[in-house]
C-alpha cells in the first residue's frame, strides 16, 4: 500500500476542499530531499469532518500545513470552492486566509503569552478590519461564551492563567471568529487528559454545528478520530493507505496497516484479548530513501514480490471505502468506480 | 536470552511464609513548599507489591501519580519537599537513606523508566556507555564484560544491529528506539522493582504496543515487580494485575484489574472510563466529559476531593472525607466513597440523569407536541447543562 491514485475522489461539485496529487518535499542536505507527502489525494464535502491518522512521520501534519499553503506544496492542487490555492499569489492568497483556520496541538504555546485573551481572540477581526470596535468586542464575547469561557472573567487575563483545556478553548474561539469554512485541527487533543479531551471533542462538534464548519482532524489516536470523523484517511510514510467512513473502516479494515494500527490500540477492558498477532515489528523506514513500490511492504505481513515493484493504486472496496494495496483484506470491486474528473 | 546479566539468581517464590513483600508503602505524604503555601501532592498513600506482579497507577495530570513513584524511590529534591511515611523494600526501611545509600539501591535493586526518552538519556554520551555505566558501578564489571552485557541487553530489547548501535548517540535513533535504550539502561543490573512512569505516552500506538510487549516479556524473564504509572486506562487494563486509581494525591479505588473493570465503585473511576472514546461506539457518539477540573492541592476542597465534580454528590460528601476501605463483598477491592456506584443514592441520580437525557434528545416522543417541532425549538425539559471547565 501506501499508494497513489485518485479513484476515491468524488465529483468536484460535491466537495468543498479537494487535494489532488499533493507533494511536499523538504531539502535533506547533500542534494537529497525528503518527500514528506507524496502524491496524496482526498476531498472533503461541506460540513464533513475528515480524520487523518497515521504514526509520527507519516506526513499527516505536513498535509494539513500544505493545505494552508504553509509551506506551499511542491506540486499538486488544493482546491477550495473551485479555486486552486496553489496557483494564487500574494494578496489573492491572503484573501483566502480567513476561510481557512488552524488549531494546534500545544494549546499553551499557540497563544501569545504577553497578550490578553481579548487581544488574542480579537486580532483576526482587527487584521481584516471587520466591524467597529464595539461590534468586535461583542463578537469576541459571543465566541468566548460559545466555547465555554466566561468573557467577563477571562477577557483581561493572559494565557498562563488558564489550564491546557481552557487554552485550547481560547484557540478554538480565535479560529472560529472569522467564520471560516474549513478548520484544520492538528492533534488538538493529544496534549490533554482524557476528561478534558472529551470536553474539547464535544466542543468541536458543537462548534461545527453552530458555525457550519468543515474540519480536517489530524490525530494519531484512532478512537478519537473515529469519534469525530465522517470519513477517515489512513496515511503511511507520505502516502495514503485507505479511506472510508469510520464505522466500515474500523470494523472491516482493507489495508494491513489499518489492521495493525487497530490491533495496537490498548483497550480499556481487561477481558479483551491482546491482538499481538497483528502488532507491527520495527520502525518507520527513512523517508529519504523510502521502500520501492508499496512503502509499507517492509513491515507488511502479506508482502509479495509485486509489492516491491509496483506501487498500488486506490481501489474501491465498498460504499465509500477505498484502499491502495495489492493484497487487500477485503474484496475490491473488479471495476473501480472512477469518479475523477 | 543468553545475557550474562545477573538476574539475581532464581526468583524467591513469592508467597513463601515469612518472606517479606518486595515493596510495602505505608501512609506516604509528600508536600512541596510553593509560593502560595504548602501543596500536598501525595496524601496518605499505602500500597504493596510482590515480585513478578504489576501494579497500575492511573490518574489525570496533577493527581500525584508521578510524585508517588518518585517519593517511593527517593528521587525528589530535599530542599522544598517534606516527606513522611514508610517505604519498606524487601523488609528494610529505605525512606531515611542518605544519597550514597540510595545510589547503591538505584539502578541495582530498583530502577525507573521515564516518560520522555529524549531527556532521559544524556545527549552527549553514546548509548552504550549509558548502559555500561551502571554495570561498572554496581557490579564492578570489566570494560569488555560490561560491553558484552550491554550489547546483549540492546539485543534483548530488540534493537537491530546492537553492536553498531552501542556506539550511537541518542539523537541518531527514533523515539521508539530511544525508549528501548532507556529500558535497557533500567534493566541493566537486573532490578527487582521497576517503575515505569508513563513509558509509552510519548510514543506512537504501534510502538507503544511493542514497548509494552517488551516490558511484559522482560518482567517474565526477570521476575520483576513493576509499578506502571499512566493516565491511560487502556494501557493498564491489559497489562496490570492490580490497579490503583489516584485523584488529588490519594488512592480513591484499588482492586485487581478484572474486578475494577467489572465492578467500579468510585464515581471518579466510572467518569474516567466514560470519557474515553470507544472504538466500539459509532462515530459522533457524544462523549461523557467530566465537568470542572481537578482541585487546587494548596487549598483542597472540604470533604471528598471529587465532590465538586461528582454527578452523584450528596450533602455529606461536602463535609466529610471518605477513607479508603475494603468493599464488604470483596476485601481486595478498596474504595473511598460514601455512596459508591450501585448504592441506592447513586442509582436514583443515575436514573434521573438518564431520564433528562432521554427527554432532551427525543422531545417529540416524550412531550408529544401538537405542532411539528422546528429544529430551533427548545426541548421542553432543558438538557442538563454540560459543565465546562469553568473559570
UniProtKB/TrEMBL annotation, chain A:
<comment type="similarity">
    <text>Belongs to the ABC transporter superfamily.</text>
</comment>
<keyword id="KW-0813">Transport</keyword>
<protein>
    <submittedName>
        <fullName>Unannotated protein</fullName>
    </submittedName>
</protein>
<dbReference type="Pfam" id="PF08352">
    <property type="entry name" value="oligo_HPY"/>
</dbReference>
<dbReference type="InterPro" id="IPR050319">
    <property type="entry name" value="ABC_transp_ATP-bind"/>
</dbReference>
<dbReference type="GO" id="GO:0055085">
    <property type="term" value="P:transmembrane transport"/>
</dbReference>
<feature type="domain" description="ABC transporter">
    <location>
        <begin position="17"/>
        <end position="262"/>
    </location>
</feature>
<dbReference type="GO" id="GO:0016887">
    <property type="term" value="F:ATP hydrolysis activity"/>
</dbReference>
<dbReference type="InterPro" id="IPR003593">
    <property type="entry name" value="AAA+_ATPase"/>
</dbReference>
<dbReference type="GO" id="GO:0015833">
    <property type="term" value="P:peptide transport"/>
</dbReference>
<dbReference type="InterPro" id="IPR027417">
    <property type="entry name" value="P-loop_NTPase"/>
</dbReference>
<dbReference type="Pfam" id="PF00005">
    <property type="entry name" value="ABC_tran"/>
</dbReference>
<dbReference type="InterPro" id="IPR017871">
    <property type="entry name" value="ABC_transporter-like_CS"/>
</dbReference>
<keyword id="KW-0067">ATP-binding</keyword>
<dbReference type="InterPro" id="IPR013563">
    <property type="entry name" value="Oligopep_ABC_C"/>
</dbReference>
<dbReference type="InterPro" id="IPR003439">
    <property type="entry name" value="ABC_transporter-like_ATP-bd"/>
</dbReference>
<dbReference type="GO" id="GO:0005524">
    <property type="term" value="F:ATP binding"/>
</dbReference>
<keyword id="KW-0547">Nucleotide-binding</keyword>
TrEMBL record, chain B:
<dbReference type="InterPro" id="IPR013563">
    <property type="entry name" value="Oligopep_ABC_C"/>
</dbReference>
<dbReference type="InterPro" id="IPR027417">
    <property type="entry name" value="P-loop_NTPase"/>
</dbReference>
<dbReference type="InterPro" id="IPR003439">
    <property type="entry name" value="ABC_transporter-like_ATP-bd"/>
</dbReference>
<keyword id="KW-0547">Nucleotide-binding</keyword>
<feature type="region of interest" description="Disordered">
    <location>
        <begin position="1"/>
        <end position="20"/>
    </location>
</feature>
<dbReference type="InterPro" id="IPR050388">
    <property type="entry name" value="ABC_Ni/Peptide_Import"/>
</dbReference>
<feature type="domain" description="ABC transporter">
    <location>
        <begin position="23"/>
        <end position="273"/>
    </location>
</feature>
<dbReference type="InterPro" id="IPR003593">
    <property type="entry name" value="AAA+_ATPase"/>
</dbReference>
<protein>
    <submittedName>
        <fullName>Unannotated protein</fullName>
    </submittedName>
</protein>
<feature type="region of interest" description="Disordered">
    <location>
        <begin position="365"/>
        <end position="391"/>
    </location>
</feature>
<dbReference type="Pfam" id="PF00005">
    <property type="entry name" value="ABC_tran"/>
</dbReference>
<dbReference type="GO" id="GO:0016887">
    <property type="term" value="F:ATP hydrolysis activity"/>
</dbReference>
<keyword id="KW-0813">Transport</keyword>
<dbReference type="GO" id="GO:0005524">
    <property type="term" value="F:ATP binding"/>
</dbReference>
<dbReference type="GO" id="GO:0015833">
    <property type="term" value="P:peptide transport"/>
</dbReference>
<feature type="compositionally biased region" description="Polar residues">
    <location>
        <begin position="1"/>
        <end position="15"/>
    </location>
</feature>
<dbReference type="InterPro" id="IPR017871">
    <property type="entry name" value="ABC_transporter-like_CS"/>
</dbReference>
<keyword id="KW-0067">ATP-binding</keyword>
<keyword id="KW-0472">Membrane</keyword>
<keyword id="KW-1003">Cell membrane</keyword>
<dbReference type="Pfam" id="PF08352">
    <property type="entry name" value="oligo_HPY"/>
</dbReference>
<dbReference type="GO" id="GO:0005886">
    <property type="term" value="C:plasma membrane"/>
</dbReference>
Amino acid at each position: 500500500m501506501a499508494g497513489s491514485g485518485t479513484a476515491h475522489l468524488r465529483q468536484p461539485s460535491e466537495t468543498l476542499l479537494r487535494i489532488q496529487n499533493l507533494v511536499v518535499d523538504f531539502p535533506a542536505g547533500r542534494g537529497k530531499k525528503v518527500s514528506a507527502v507524496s502524491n496524496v489525494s482526498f476531498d472533503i464535502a461541506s460540513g464533513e469532518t475528515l480524520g487523518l491518522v497515521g504514526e509520527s512521520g507519516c506526513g499527516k501534519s505536513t498535509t494539513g500545513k500544505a493545505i494552508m499553503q504553509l509551506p506551499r506544496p511542491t506540486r499538486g492542487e488544493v482546491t477550495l470552492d473551485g479555486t486552486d490555492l496553489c496557483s494564487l499569489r500574494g494578496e489573492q492568497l491572503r484573501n483566502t486566509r480567513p476561510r481557512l483556520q488552524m488549531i494546534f496541538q500545544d494549546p499553551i504555546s499557540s497563544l501569545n503569552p504577553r497578550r490578553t485573551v481579548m487581544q488574542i481572540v480579537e486580532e483576526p477581526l482587527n487584521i481584516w478590519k471587520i466591524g467597529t470596535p464595539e461590534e468586535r468586542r461583542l463578537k469576541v464575547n459571543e465566541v468566548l461564551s460559545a466555547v465555554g469561557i466566561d468573557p467577563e472573567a477571562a477577557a483581561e487575563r493572559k494565557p498562563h492563567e488558564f489550564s491546557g483545556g481552557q487554552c485550547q478553548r481560547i484557540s478554538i474561539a480565535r479560529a472560529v471568529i472569522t467564520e471560516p469554512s474549513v478548520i484544520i485541527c492538528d492533534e488538538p487533543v493529544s496534549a490533554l487528559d482524557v476528561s478534558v479531551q472529551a470536553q474539547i471533542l464535544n466542543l468541536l462538534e458543537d462548534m461545527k454545528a453552530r458555525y457550519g464548519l468543515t474540519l480536517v482532524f489530524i490525530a494519531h489516536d484512532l478512537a478519537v478520530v473515529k469519534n469525530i470523523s465522517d470519513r477517515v484517511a489512513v496515511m503511511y510514510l507520505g502516502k495514503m493507505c485507505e479511506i472510508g467512513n469510520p464505522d466500515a473502516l474500523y470494523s472491516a479494515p482493507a489495508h494491513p496497516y489499518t489492521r495493525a494500527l487497530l490491533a495496537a490500540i490498548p483497550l480499556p477492558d481487561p477481558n479483551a484479548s491482546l491482538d499481538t498477532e497483528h502488532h507491527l515489528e520495527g520502525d518507520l523506514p527513512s523517508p529519504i530513501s523510502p521502500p520501492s513500490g508499496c512503502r509499507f511492504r517492509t513491515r507488511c505481513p502479506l508482502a509479495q514480490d509485486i509489492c516491491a515493484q509496483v506501487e498500488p493504486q486506490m481501489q474501491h472496496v465498498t460504499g465509500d471505502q477505498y484502499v491502495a494495496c495489492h493484497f487487500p483484506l477485503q474484496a475490491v470491486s473488479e471495476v473501480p468506480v472512477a469518479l475523477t474528473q | 536470552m543468553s545475557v550474562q546479566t545477573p538476574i539475581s539468581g532464581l526468583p524467591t517464590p513469592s508467597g513463601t511464609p515469612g518472606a517479606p513483600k518486595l515493596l510495602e508503602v505505608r501512609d506516604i505524604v509528600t508536600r512541596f513548599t510553593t509560593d502560595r503555601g504548602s501543596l500536598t501532592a501525595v496524601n496518605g498513600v499505602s500500597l504493596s507489591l510482590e515480585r513478578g506482579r504489576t501494579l497500575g497507577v492511573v490518574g489525570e495530570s496533577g493527581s500525584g501519580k508521578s510524585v508517588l513513584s518518585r517519593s517511593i524511590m527517593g528521587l525528589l529534591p530535599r530542599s522544598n519537599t517534606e516527606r513522611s511515611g514508610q517505604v519498606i523494600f524487601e523488609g528494610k526501611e529505605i525512606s531515611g537513606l542518605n544519597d550514597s545509600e540510595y545510589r547503591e539501591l538505584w539502578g541495582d535493586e530498583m530502577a525507573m523508566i521515564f516518560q520522555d526518552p529524549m531527556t532521559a538519556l544524556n545527549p552527549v554520551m553514546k548509548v552504550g556507555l549509558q548502559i555500561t555505566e551502571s554495570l561498572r558501578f554496581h557490579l564492578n564489571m570489566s570494560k569488555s564484560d560490561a560491553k558484552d552485557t550491554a550489547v546483549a541487553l540492546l539485543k534483548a530489547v530488540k534493537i537491530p544491529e546492537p553492536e553498531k548501535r552501542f556506539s550511537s548517540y541518542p539523537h541518531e535513533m527514533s523515539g521508539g528506539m530511544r525508549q528501548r535504550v532507556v529500558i535497557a539502561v533500567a534493566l541493566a543490573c537486573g532490578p527487582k522493582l521497576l517503575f515505569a512512569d508513563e513509558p509509552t505516552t510519548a510514543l506512537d500506538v504501534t510502538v507503544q504496543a511493542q514497548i509494552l510487549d517488551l516490558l511484559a516479556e522482560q518482567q517474565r524473564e526477570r521476575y520483576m515487580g513493576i509499578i506502571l504509572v499512566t493516565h491511560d486506562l487502556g494501557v493498564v487494563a491489559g497489562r496490570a494485575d492490580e490497579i490503583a486509581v489516584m485523584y488529588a494525591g490519594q488512592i480513591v479505588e484499588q482492586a485487581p484489574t478484572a474486578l475494577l473493570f467489572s465492578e467500579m465503585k468510585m464515581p471518579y473511576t466510572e467518569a474516567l472510563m466514560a470519557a474515553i472514546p470507544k472504538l466500539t461506539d459509532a462515530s459522533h457518539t457524544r462523549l461523557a466529559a467530566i465537568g470542572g477540573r481537578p482541585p487546587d492541592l494548596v487549598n483542597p476542597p472540604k470533604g471528598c476531593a471529587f465532590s465538586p465534580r461528582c454527578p452523584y454528590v450528596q450533602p455529606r460528601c461536602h463535609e466529610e472525607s471518605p477513607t479508603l476501605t475494603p468493599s464488604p463483598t470483596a476485601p481486595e477491592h478498596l474504595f473511598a466513597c460514601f455512596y459508591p456506584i450501585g448504592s441506592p443514592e447513586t442509582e436514583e441520580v443515575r436514573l434521573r440523569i438518564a431520564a433528562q437525557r432521554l427527554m432532551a434528545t427525543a422531545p417529540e416522543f416524550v412531550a408529544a407536541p401538537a405542532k411539528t417541532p422546528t429544529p430551533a425549538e427548545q426541548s421542553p425539559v432543558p438538557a442538563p447543562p454540560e459543565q465546562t471547565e469553568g473559570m
